[in-house]
Model the fold of this input.
Amino acid sequence: MKLAPVALAACLSLLAACGGGNSEVGEFKNDWLGNEIKIKSLTDPKIDGVICHLAFFDRGVWDRIGKGNWFENPSNSSISCLQTGPVKIRNIDLDRSGEEVFDQNQSLVFKQLAVRRIYDADSDSLIYVSFSRKPIDGSAKMSLSTVPLYGRDVAWERGKPPP
Done:
């Protein structure tokens, strides 16, 4: 009976770490406690021909037991994006805050790992930022990747915006 809460916590933690529609392309253990670095490939739902790879930390069961925090992964992440084919840009948000293209729970309730895309018209590039979001104590840990569009064959669904 005492194992039921532990089993439930482990299951909920695993479900919370699952993202939607993006595939995990790699994982490896980085210590004896079962902690892992996971790597996902992310496709931008409004841009064809660009892929991002997001690396993040996933705490193992023994680390969760040892630290007593069952329901949360660290905020650390890294992102790298590149052009994989002809780029087609649909109706994207062009304001300075851009738009979120991915999020994944990093805790049972409040903490999320997110990726936001911003278009920089002056340099004609796409900027992807991975960061951790919490409602109260936001994290300053982030990673940035850019995809240059200058000189590339890019199709804009609504026409290229002026710089």
